[in-house]
Write a structure and sequence with these properties.
alpha+beta; four-stranded antiparallel beta sheet; 4 helices; 31% strand; elongated
């Protein structure tokens, strides 16, 4: 007879401590996925830095452009008037054009029945008023049936190809301006700014109001200002010719152009 003796099971011996070996990636562990957060962070940082750089460059450029630009408000579109009248006194019998009508040189504008000289037996005659040059009708000065004197305008024209912008400028602004500087005209009626150049400055005409002191502050400021005349560039004349004289715009003059040219005003002030 065989006897079996059972001994109590001893606990497993602890494994000796040592360096932990890396667990090789199993089929469900993706190394690329574990790097994605770092890649996203890097890309976001690059985009933010790039945006900040672009924004800073834009702001700096915009501020430099503003500092190099002199803005003149109330740049009035102007044209030289060309009045057309009769050689003698009479009655306007017909007006053959309307306001803003473009006319050719020699085109008939109106008819005036001139008064005859009773003393000499001269009979009344009808005089046809014709445009001396191409232009646009700015005003009908006397309607049909009206009486006019010799030389009085019946119809007033202007040359739509020779329009200019007139803007007031202070002495300080004039010191920064040079003839030939580039300008941009902007305002109502313009789909995009009109390019122009500083052509000349009109001389102050008339008595000096400062001799009749005291003046108000507004009167003194108005007297110290001069008129800067801006002429549209050749490639913009057709766009300007469709506008009506008297309209007001804003002129921005780039002081970094034509720096070495003649000052707009010598010894201003």
């Amino acid at each position: 007879m065989t006897t079996v003796v059972e001994h109590p099971r001893l606990p497993d011996s602890p494994k000796p401590a040592g360096p932990t070996r890396p667990v090789p990636p199993g089929p469900n562990r993706d190394p690329a996925r574990s790097r994605m957060p770092a890649v996203r962070t890097f890309l976001v940082t690059v985009l933010l830095l790039g945006g900040a750089a672009v924004g800073g460059t834009y702001v700096a450029t915009h501020r430099l452009a503003e500092s190099a630009t002199i803005t003149l408000d109330d740049a009035v579109l102007s044209a030289d008037a060309l009045p057309v009248g009769a050689t003698g006194a009479g009655v306007v019998t017909e007006i053959l054009v309307t306001g803003q009508t473009r006319v050719a040189a020699g085109q008939e504008l109106a008819r005036v029945r001139l008064a005859g000289d009773r003393a000499s037996g001269e009979q009344p005659t009808v005089e046809a008023l014709r445009a001396p040059s191409p232009g646009t009708v700015s005003e009908i000065d006397v309607a049909a049936g009206g009486v006019v004197g010799a030389g009085e305008p019946v119809v007033t024209l202007y040359d739509h190809t020779r329009l200019s912008f007139h803007a007031k400028a202070t002495v300080e602004q004039l010191r920064e301006l040079r003839l030939g500087m580039s300008a941009r005209i902007d305002g109502p009626g313009l789909a995009r700014p009109v390019p122009a150049v500083v052509d000349h400055v009109e001389a102050r005409v008339g008595p000096d109001p400062l001799s009749d002191a005291p003046l108000s502050e507004d009167q003194r400021v108005a007297h110290e200002q001069l008129t800067v005349v801006l002429v549209p560039r050749t490639d913009a004349i057709d766009r300007v010719s469709t506008l009506v004289p008297g309209l007001r715009f804003t002129a921005g003059i780039d002081t970094e152009t034509a720096v070495g040219r003649t000052p707009a005003v010598n010894g201003a002030g």
